[in-house]
Write a structure and sequence with these properties.
The chain is an alpha/beta fold. The chain is 46% helix and 16% strand. Strands 1-2-3-4-5-6-7-8 form an 8-stranded parallel barrel, surrounded by 6 helices. The longest helix has 14 residues, at 63-76. It starts with a strand and ends with a helix. The structure holds SN-glycerol-3-phosphate. SN-glycerol-3-phosphate binds next to β6 and α6.
Length: 225
């Protein structure tokens, strides 16, 4: 299993890389729009600092435009760029064309395991299955995770299940324990996970007890400053 970072922020990629949580990066137009720099420059910079796959999403609306844009985006870094296409009829047509040309494809905004049906003979690299965004609307996609896994196994086992839109640890764990090959996690979710209230409270209370000890006793245990 791999972790990708769902961001276009160079700062966040550099930060989380140090914790081995950036085996690749996924971007989308919203994430790119949050960066102040030119999006092409941002993607180039991401490719420079990330060792794995970098998803760059098309913004064209029809398959012809998507294919043209994909050619340009892929030229940024032939090895790392994965073309992210929407799971629409135009996106699927573009995926068929581009996968025949050996482009790496990430089909995104997958909400329904039945959407994988058309990919039996289209060799996409990743199918992004959206989890958190569904819960934003008071619904849940969790019970569909094992169904999608099974559909991929029966239909085209080469496709990697990419769990996306991860807002909390429970969504992350459901994806991980039900067979996601890759989980793309936004930096804010890692922040929440590693700023766990009980970890921080426990640490604070240990330090408070420690400070009750006389200074000279503590010093025997602590590093010399
Ligand atoms: O690929 C889609 C994913 O990046 C969406 O995430 O957080 O906008 O629901 P989010």
């Amino acid at each position: 299993m791999k972790f990708f970072l769902d961001t276009a922020s160079i700062e966040q990629i550099s930060k989380w890389k140090k914790f081995d949580l950036v085996h690749g990066v996924t971007t989308n137009p919203t994430l790119l729009s949050k960066e102040s720099s030119d999006p092409v420059k941002v993607i180039k910079e991401i490719c420079k600092i990330v060792n794995g796959d970098v998803s760059a999403q098309v913004t064209e609306r029809n398959s012809k435009g998507m294919i043209e844009q994909a050619k340009f985006l892929r030229s940024i870094d032939k090895k790392k760029i994965v073309i992210k296409l929407p799971c629409t009829l135009d996106g699927i047509q573009a995926a068929r064309f581009l996968s025949d040309k050996n482009y790496k494809i990430n089909i995104t905004l997958g909400f329904d395991p039945a959407q994988i049906s058309t990919f039996k003979n289209i060799n996409i690299s990743y199918f992004s299955f959206i989890i958190g965004r569904v819960e934003d609307f008071g619904d849940s996609n969790i019970s569909n995770i094992p169904l999608l896994k099974l559909m991929i196994k029966k239909l085209n086992p080469k496709i990697k299940f990419l769990a996306a839109s991860i807002r909390n640890s429970s969504q992350l764990l459901s994806a991980a324990t039900n067979g996601a090959d890759v989980i793309t996690v936004p930096p804010t979710t890692w922040d929440k996970i590693y700023k766990n209230k009980y970890t921080l409270d426990g640490e604070k209370s240990f330090m408070e007890s420690w400070e009750q000890l006389p200074n000279d006793v503590r010093k025997k245990y602590e590093i010399k400053k």
